[in-house]
Amino acid sequence: MVLDGISIIEAPERQEHIENIRQTNFEDRLELLIDVAYNTRQNNKLERLIKDAGFRTTAPSISNIDYQPDLQLDQAVITKLAIGTYIKAHHNILIVGASGNGKALLATALGIAACRQFYKVRYVRLPELLDDLLVEKNEVNGDFKKILVKYGKYDLLIIDEWLLTGVSQEQATFILELMERRAGQRATIFCSQFGPVAWHDKLGQSQIADAILDRIVHTAYHIEIDGKKSMRERYGIGGRA
Predict the structure, then answer these.
(1) Where does the record locate the signal sequence feature (predicted)?
(2) Angle 224-65-84 (CA atoms, 0-180°, nearest 5)?
(3) C-alpha span between 92 and 219 (Å, rounded)
(4) Cβ contacts of residue 142 below 8 Å, gap of 6+?
(5) How far is Cα 226 from Cα 144, in angstroms, rounded to an integer?
(6) DSSP bridge pairs for 157
(7) 55-235: what fold?
(8) Strands (E), 48-155
């Protein structure tokens, strides 16, 4: 018998390394074994959730968020969001800021915090999400409903590079269907260089754009990262933030 990678034979042997363990009665030793198995199971589950989320980096955390004054981040708001009540309430978060100002880092920190609460999280760039749609469309018997199911099931979906460029009417229709599936049912974080006012033109057809924004904006927390310097300039790092 195996307790999450520790055999039932190995577990008592490991207890022998605990000081004064022989003075502990059988019931307490058994409870200790159960606690070890439970903690191991929870740790394994957390590792799977973080791996399956597809984060580009797992370094960000709520504890190392930069609150330099020029970024104009409200620590009280971030701390409240880290608790995850917005996920239970199925509310969205809009993180807006110039390229390199740390949008993806903040979203990832919130995503990892959600994983630690055992929510199913997925990080994806909008171009990758739309590529999934194109691949499915080109498949024999392709049906973009499969993509809707795939991205509609996550407790928290993080969409980076949101509407950097305009999208086709077909893509806008897909986005609408995904937002319809998630609105009021799941939480979504959008990372964008542009605020909702600019999204309208990038989504094209007016009625579709109105419908998409209606399903995103009204229940969303708005976070604007100002930042006079990009994260690359601030810390001398490469890559996208």
Answers:
(1) none
(2) 75
(3) 6
(4) 136
(5) 37
(6) 122, 188
(7) Rossmann fold (3.40.50)
(8) 92-97, 121-125
